[in-house]
Specification:
Na+/H+ antiporter like fold; globular; two-stranded antiparallel ribbon; 2% strand; 70% helix; mainly alpha; 435 residues; 17 helices; single chain
Length: 435
């Protein structure tokens, strides 16, 4: 799913660049400035340009999914113990710190200094799509490593957005939002969960964050942490109930009848109730949201944000673009490789099974594909300067392209194709955490 999502992202990015530099560029770019919203006679109005509805509201769903994934990985996934998390944790720390240091070192313009957070995060959809092109050459452990440190990257980016890319904060509204959030946590602790309550409270928290000066997408992450991961009944109980329902359906109707009997309808309703109880709310939501995020939200974000006019009277800050591209490519490469090596040499971490440092270098390069989150941070860093924003986007696109091609080539020559069918089957049966 992530690989196909990466292809959609690439296609929409290319389409946005073509349209932004075509004869209909003005019409294309004006779509995203069209204002829509809600206004009532009770002095309530929420009117924003379409681009902000996408970046503030639609992307809150993207961040909600990230929050679900972070919680799952912390509780039962690749980050649920220090030993399992140590290697991707070291890599992610290096992959966040070194790009920032490199950006601040190269950048000489105080006006563009706010863009230091742009090269921090890795775009998991693009990077997994590139890994998918390598097929059986890539060990399963390498894919798990990439997804694990990308989750830590996302968590770091969320913290940076909350702390450094929010406006002057209105603490009264924040306290009110936190009070509502505390109610959700309490209900989750008591085993009370309803997706409708979570949705309703989540929208209120999103609005309060928006008005309080904290970027509203953070509300998506926090609301996700309130979704319980545990099932209300275990699988054995569900199977027993399922057998009872099957028997009752078989014994309470006529096979030749065109309609179900009243008893059969009741048993089918029971099946739906028990099926809902056996599902983990977090897992169920994650599963349901993946298609929407992968095939709608991220492609819409790409086509609305990747349109950079490169010709005509456009004034671009080439220095900023080069700085961001260098921080993405070199910063991620050096940071991930160096910190991974330090972790292994200190004896705190181990290389993932079946991998080598040549492959880690390839993943370090691949991590420089920072498309979605990098463009998102760029929108927050340069909201009042279209020239700087377009320059930052150009740097992200160029850096991501260099990182993607470089990472693919390094991994292509650092890994040999698996020929052992048993080894392939074993890898396939292990599964890869979805992002």
């Amino acid at each position: 799913m992530e690989s196909l999502s990466g292809i959609f992202l690439f296609g929409n990015t290319l389409l946005a660049l073509i349209l932004a530099n075509s004869s209909i560029s003005e019409e294309f770019l004006s779509i995203w400035t069209f204002k829509i919203g809600i206004e009532t006679s009770f002095d309530f109005h929420l009117i924003k340009p379409l681009i902000l509805w996408i970046n503030d509201a639609l992307m809150a769903v993207f961040f909600f999914l990230i929050g679900l994934e972070i919680k799952r990985e912390l509780l039962i996934g690749e980050l649920n113990s220090f030993r399992k998390a140590s290697f991707p944790l070291f890599a992610a720390i290096g992959g966040m710190i070194i790009p920032v240091i490199l950006f601040l070192t190269i950048n000489r313009n105080p006006e563009t200094g706010q863009g230091w957070g742009i090269p921090m995060a890795t775009d998991i959809a693009f990077s997994l799509a590139i890994l998918g092109l390598l097929g059986k050459r890539v060990p399963l452990a390498l894919k798990v490593f990439l997804t694990a440190f990308a989750i830590v990257d996302d968590l770091g980016a969320v913290m940076v957005i909350a702390l450094f890319y929010s406006d002057s904060i209105k603490w009264g509204l924040i306290l009110l939002a936190m009070g509502i959030l505390a109610i959700l946590f309490f209900l989750s602790y008591r085993g009370i969960y309803s997706r409708y309550i979570t949705l309703g409270f989540g929208i209120v928290i999103w609005y309060l964050f928006l008005k309080a000066g904290i970027h509203p997408t953070i509300a998506g992450v926090l609301a996700a942490f309130t979704v319980p991961i545990r099932q209300r009944i275990n699988m054995n109980t569900y199977i027993d109930k399922l057998c009872d329902i099957v028997a009752n359906v078989q014994n309470s109707g006529d096979e030749k009848a065109p309609l179900l009997s009243k008893k059969q309808i009741e048993e089918i309703d029971n099946l739906e109730d028990w099926t809902e109880k056996v599902q983990s709310p977090l897992q169920h939501l994650e599963h349901k949201l993946h298609n929407w995020v992968a095939y709608l939200i991220m492609p819409v974000f790409a086509i609305s944000n990747a349109g950079v006019a490169l010709g005509g009277n456009t004034s671009l800050d080439v220095s900023l673009a080069i700085t961001i591209a260098a921080a993405l490519v070199l910063g991620k490469l050096v940071g991930i490789t160096l910190f991974s090596w330090i972790g292994v040499k200190l004896g705190v971490t181990d290389l993932p099974e079946g991998t080598n440092f040549k492959q880690i270098i390839g993943i370090g390069l691949l991590a420089g594909v920072g498309f979605t989150m990098s463009i998102f941070v760029a929108n927050l860093a340069f909201p009042a300067s279209p020239e700087l924003l377009d320059s930052a986007k150009l740097g992200i696109l160029v850096g991501s392209m260099i990182a993607g091609i470089g990472g693919f080539l390094v991994l292509r020559f650092a890994t040999r194709k698996k020929e052992d069918p048993g080894e392939v089957n074993q890898a396939m049966s292990g599964g890869v955490p979805k992002l």
